[in-house]
């Protein structure tokens, strides 16, 4: 299967309650990180991995997402008139970067249900799932490695990250089998948010998956689990336990990741991204040093 056939699915139907009141009328995926909405970073990551067909799973009050990736002729004409070619390029880029489709999740029944809503669009193709709360730094590729591992083995591939054992209760956690093959491990099972003394490892599941279309059949028969929702973790657990299937593999990510689902981490992400930019970094770093000296 060629990479070109792999599609991307971005679940974006959540209410974003942690960021209220900012997300009362604005989708949390549209909250800006410096001067781009968070979801644009996710779309750019998929495009950089060679994916040109992207499905966004939306919900109520999410029209701003589709508006952002649509053309705005009147704005573009105004920028042309002003000769503002830099901003014009950034506006056009967001509407030209990929073939983006949308489907409503309807009743929110969990991540597994959101992924299942992609079945008609994805068909029998393999596909990547990218969660918008997890941003991977563009300088630290992850998705390409995951796709390559899936194409090589046929396995479902999940992204893993080593975390402090004291924080493992915040994540789904992988039970791995045998020694790693470089940064790739065979996943024997998954545990959703275990207590520290019950965690099978310190390898946390983060928001990137490359899945075979066979996962849809598993999700169809997956009963609601934790929180009364259909959990993608439960479906992956079944794939991992299938002795006749290709199983589940994990790619350990050792790069830079930004958690935009938490207010403090969101602020940190903005600061980190801005300090690395040539146009903002020098002045911002000087100001941060001055500000830190006043604390």
What does this structure look like?
With 295 residues, the protein is an alpha/beta fold. It has a single domain (3-261), classed as Spore Coat Polysaccharide Biosynthesis Protein SpsA, Chain A (Alpha-Beta Complex). 35% of the residues lie in helices and 24% in strands. The protein is built from eleven helices and 13 strands. The protein has helices at 38-48, 63-68, 73-82, 85-96, 111-116, 119-122, 143-153, 215-220, 232-241, 263-275, 281-293, and strands at residues 7-11, 32-33, 36-37, 53-58, 99-104, 127-130, 134-136, 156-162, 172-181, 184-192, 203-211, 248-252, 257-259. A nine-stranded mixed sheet has the order 5-4-1-6-11-8-12-10-9. A hairpin with a 2-residue loop joins strand 2 (32-33) and strand 3 (36-37). Helix 3 runs antiparallel to helix 4 (85-96). The chain starts with 6 loop residues before the first strand and ends with a helix. 38% of the residues are buried.
């Amino acid at each position: 299967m060629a990479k070109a056939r792999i599609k991307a699915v971005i679940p974006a139907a959540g209410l974003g309650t942690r960021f209220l009141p900012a997300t009362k009328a604005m989708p949390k995926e549209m909250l800006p990180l410096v001067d781009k909405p968070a979801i644009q970073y996710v779309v750019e990551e998929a495009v950089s991995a060679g994916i040109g067909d992207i499905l966004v799973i939306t919900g109520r009050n999410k029209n701003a997402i589709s508006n952002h990736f649509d053309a705005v002729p009147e704005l573009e004409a105004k920028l042309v008139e002003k000769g503002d070619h830099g901003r014009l390029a950034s506006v056009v880029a967001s509407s030209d970067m990929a073939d983006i489709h949308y489907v409503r999740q309807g009743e929110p029944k969990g991540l597994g249900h959101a992924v299942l809503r992609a079945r008609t669009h994805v068909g029998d193709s393999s596909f990547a799932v990218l969660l918008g709360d997890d941003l991977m730094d563009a300088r630290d590729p992850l998705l390409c490695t995951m796709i390559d591992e899936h194409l090589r083995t046929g396995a479902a591939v999940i992204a893993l990250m080593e975390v402090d054992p004291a924080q493992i209760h915040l994540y789904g956690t992988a039970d791995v089998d045998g020694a790693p093959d470089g940064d790739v491990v065979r996943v024997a099972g998954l545990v959703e948010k275990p207590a520290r003394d019950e965690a099978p490892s310190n390898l946390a599941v983060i928001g990137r998956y490359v899945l075979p279309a066979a996962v849809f059949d598993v999700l169809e028969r997956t009963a609601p689990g934790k929180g009364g929702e259909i959990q993608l973790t439960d479906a992956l657990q079944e794939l991992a336990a299938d002795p006749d299937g290709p199983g589940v593999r994990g790619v350990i990510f050792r790069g830079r990741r930004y958690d935009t689902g938490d207010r403090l981490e969101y602020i940190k992400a903005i600061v980190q991204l801005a300090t690395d930019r040539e146009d903002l970094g020098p002045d911002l770093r000087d100001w941060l040093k001055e500000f830190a000296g006043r604390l």
